[in-house]
Amino acid sequence: MNRDFQGGGGYPRVPQRIHLPRGQVTFLFTDIEGSTRLAQMLGDGYRPVLHEHRRVLRAVLAAAGGVELFTEGDSYFFAFADATTAVGACASAQRALEAHAWPDPQAQPKVRMGLHTGLAQPHGGEYASPEVHRAARVAAAAHGGQILLSASTAEAAAQLPDQAWLLDLGLHRLRGFDGRERLFQLVAPELEQHFPRPRTDRTAPHNLPSPLTSFVGRHPERAELAELLSAHRLTTVVGAGGAGKSRLAVAVAHDLIESYPDGIWNLDIAGVTDPGLLAFTVATMLGLRPEPGRPVVETLVEHASTRRLMLLLDTCEAQVGAVAPLVARLLAGAPEVTVLATSREPLGIAGELVWRIPPLSLAPSAGGGVSDAVTLLAERTSAARGGRPVEPAELADLARVAARLDGLPLAIELAAARLRVLSGGELAARLHAELTAEESDPLRALDAGGPHSGAHARHATMQATVTWSYRTLPDDAARLLRWLSVFAGPVSLAGVEWLMDGDPLGPLTVLVDKSLVQAEPGAHGTTYRMLDPIRGYAARRLAAHDEEAAARDRHVAWALRALQAVGRGPDEQPVTLSLYSIDPLAAELRAALRWCGTGGSARSGLQISCGLDQWWRERGLAREGRLWLFRLYARLSETGEVVPDAELARAYHAHSGHAAVDGEFVEELRFSRRAESAGRRAGDPGLLARVLAGRSGALRDAGKPDDAEQACREVLAWATRYEVAPDALFAVCNLAELLWLRGALDEAATLLAASRQLEQLRPAERGRRTLDLLLGMVALRRGDLVAAHEHLTVALRSRMAYGFHGRACVAVKAMAARCVQGGDAMTAATLFGAAESTTVRLHCGPGIFAPFWTAQQEAARAALGDAVFDEAYARGAALSLGETASLALAVEHPDLALDSSRFAELPSGS
């Protein structure tokens, strides 16, 4: 990083004949991200690249009226008299750099840009103002290809470039400045959109999880492990599955937060499915991006080389072959980095201290209290019994149980589940009976009975612990356990019956009695769940018995059936779709998709993807939806499976919608065309009407509103002719939005009012109440607050009731605009802050009404003043979506206001 971005020294003077802007000045700093690396990679070829970079930037920025103060190395410093011009110039400059014919794709410089606006007066051909240093700090926070704006620049930029919008990145602390600065990213067509968090001083020094249950005991172990970490740079906590390694490591890491000023960063290696992505995942966690022509591990090591931080790498056994070389390289190049690893086996690295986690202590505490193992068993037993505390008289029996289980935490958790139906004395007696058996198995006392086939009394691994129970299962119960491993989470009895194609109650009872499956009563019936270690064990057995394909295909069929059922009532007739009904199925549907994309039917996967169409977008998961579809297309190519054109059309149509939400408009149009081609081949008029209706949205997103409007009118006429008008509802909505944009409010209102019946005939969409939302927007433009309020509350209430969260944010913004027009700027500011916060979290774009929202926010800001507006906006950003909706729905109806004409006095004599 050059010295100007560090804020040191003065800024070189320019000749006094150059006119420098004064007053409200927008300062721009730029430099090349990873310039040192780029220079090393290109050698003598770097100078022409640097020269071309300078030429391109100077041409664009100077043409826009920017005054160049200096060029030093790969850095530029410009001043602009107008913030709007400066923002537009930056966007143009990034596009010019992207479009330039560089000698090699690896040679393209990635330029970061930072803008800040403030009062400044030039003296002697230079600026001596803290605003310049603030601008430099904003630029230092950016990544290559990114344009960051301070809050003052965002406010001063009265008009953004076409189709551009500002992404609120939240408050950040700029080094050397008190307080926190709100930073914005310019998002515009042809500009890269996705970056790591800004490079600013972090307020949170760790990402350690907050456990859901209490951490019991292990005080000596915590102290010992903390002391070892102070003397050894790599400490690996080794033990069997279920021994409590992860919980202990997280607890110790929490104790040491203050010892690592650059943070403690936790990564569960089990979540890294591709070993080749491990270094990239660690780098992303630390806010780093890959550099051109350079292995990401080198970028990671260079970043860590000057920092004092700890990495907590959990469940390393999942990728030990990838973890070991990465950790070795990192420790060799970063002398202040400490690694705390948990694993079922050592990493095998020189200098590694292997610390084997002991079982929970069975010795009474120093004060004469119960042991750690008994404390854990008592706490978990109380939870299993609905919160009823364990009676003191039962503690002695629990001590016998804990001792018989060797103090292994997972075995104790299983025993606590059994104590839901047994007393401590009864369970201890069963364990004692097993102790006298020829081949002792302490977990056998937790089983429902069955033939005794022994094992050694003590076992060192969790797999062996589960095997003790598994080998005593009758054949039907063992098969059920294996097949249940295909479920990702809890499942109802009906789901188990579907999977096994018969009555599973007998073997299921055996599994519950053995604590291999947890029975969890709930308001809607009992569900059945396996702990993850047991599920993994059962899945391995499933594959070993050559049953995986059959079981997973059956699970896919169940998942597809469950997904289709959410849109139908008890009489199998369509009902209004509620996305809340899909939420509990998400883990199962992902598991089904994973199998469809690797070893199962891609066609079934496409059917599931289409069923999740709206859910993905409304939950901020449009990108995930696209990735699953790409994976399924690849599976189709691999297997040659035949998929009917109608199903392909629906999949392509869904893909187009995901791409639109994700801002990939070229991809949106491409898949819209594919959907049309497949739809025409299918010969289904209703399907084709839905696909063609979606085309208008793609045209609009491509910047062709006239073509989009014409497409809407054509598809509506076509759908009417073929008597499939309800399937063209999306075209009605798109056309109404386009009419709203160009001010044709009467035509929009007439169109929407005439389409009420169409919405009622579309149960998959009617919960969105889009027509009410649009009628409310028309009323807002007309100044009719009564109609606007009524339509918008109907839309918002329905969208929240049926789980359309992304669309609920639009309704909240509309209610905020209604508050602005009704004179309640404070509530409007709060609602805007809340809606924008949720919109960012859900990865939703600005939408077609973005300029209108901006104008209404500015009106509220003008009414309240900056400080009050920002405070209300920040207060809203802290609200949940449910709290936000409640606030919006609590806005008083205009007819209830004191000055409403409805309460005017009647003329005398009336």
TrEMBL record:
GO terms for biological process: cyclic nucleotide biosynthetic process; intracellular signal transduction. Residues 26-139 form the Guanylate cyclase domain. It holds the Pfam family HTH_77. Gene3D superfamilies: Nucleotide cyclase, P-loop containing nucleotide triphosphate hydrolases, Tetratricopeptide repeat domain. CDD domains: CHD (cd07302). One of its GO terms (molecular function) is adenylate cyclase activity. This is Guanylate cyclase domain-containing protein. It comes from Catellatospora citrea.
